[in-house]
Amino acid sequence: MSRLRVSALQPGLYYLAEGSPQLRPRRWALNALLALGVLGLLLLSLLAGELSLSPLQAWKAWRGEDAMALFLLQEIRLPRALAALLVGASLGLAGLLLQTLARNRLASPDVVGVHDGAVLALGLGLMFSADGLLGPWWLALAGALLSLALVLLCAGGVGRQGQRALIVGLAVAALARSGFELVLATVELAHSSALYSFSMGSLLASSYTQLLPVSLGLGGLLILLLPWLPGLALLQLGESQAQLLGLRVGRHRLMLVLLAGALAGLGVSVAGPIGFVALVAPLLARAWLGSLPLLGAALLGAALTLLADLLGRLLLAPVELPAGVLSGMLGGPVLLWLLLRDAGREDGE
After folding, report:
1. Where is this chain primarily localised (predicted)?
2. Which of 170, 231, 256, 266 is the most buried (most CB within 10 A)?
């Protein structure tokens, strides 16, 4: 279909994406509450830790009255909190895109091998690096997209082949994980511990130098995503309905899947594979906000990642647990609850 016909459907697409007019105020109110919750977790992440700061101490530090506290806030905790924010939002959006396209609640980057492919690419970068450092951030992006391309090639795409894509994705994830373990066994002992820590999903090494290109990349991906959102809303109606309305389904699916893979790859490049965020955040967002909750999925992804990192710093202080471990502990029970709740509803019907 021509772009003109799709653009003519904007009012209907907005209704589809935002829900009925009666429910829109509730949805925006919930999004506002989620944003406030993310802001609260961000501030708490700056103040809490092995060395806790009071709001007054933080204020004095920002005014330059406490050099040590200022260094702690500016150079250690702020980049880490911003990294959690960016990573969580990227994973939440990536999970929502994949679940919508595959029409399957279990479709997410960590399930279909995207995370493992990105980690393998970074590990290979370290293996062949002359200075013994992890590969540059774009290697994770390349690894994620290559893994996703392999899944699409073997499964014949997503959508109607959503179940097959999940099975192929599990196989690709297993292959990539085995490849990473081979890399881990091959690299020098001095680097294997850092690589293993990264593979667990850790925000400990976050820095402004790392965040700048990733934040620019995320901004660019969001700009690229915007013109494809009307097509995503149409795809929720089903492939045949979208085709009847003139949407070029194959082109839209391919572009949206690639954008989802790129978003996930960017997230992994910062913190490693933080599991369950991309799976659980969209499910919670749909449960609370309804159809196609893009903003809600990003906010919930950010909140889950901030919370996982914060708990990892506090629970066994001064020992820090990787955020990926805590995200699994948080996300697993939530996922189980959502699946059991939906199963109960289906049995009731």
Report:
1. membrane
2. 266
Q: How far apart (Å, rounded) are the C-alpha atoms in residues 93 and 260?
A: 7
pTM of the complete model beyond 0.85: yes
pLDDT tens digits, one per residue of 227-246: 888 888 888 777 777 778 77
- Coil vs helix vs strand at 283: helix
Element at 278 (helix H, strand E): helix 277-289
Handedness of CA 325, 330, 333, 334 (dihedral sign): negative
How many domains in the chain?
1
How far is Cα 96 from Cα 94, in angstroms, rounded to an integer? 6
Domain that holds residue 296: 3-348
Sign of CA dihedral 208, 210, 211, 213: positive
CATH number of the CATH domain containing 135: 1.10.3470.10
Distance CA 311, CA 319 (A): 11
- Reported as a single tens digit per residue, the pLDDT across 286-298 is 888 877 788 999 9
Rounded distance between C-alpha atoms, residue 152 and residue 264, angstroms: 16
Query: If we measure between CA atoms, which residue out of 238, 284, 309, 342 comes closest to residue 84?
Result: 309
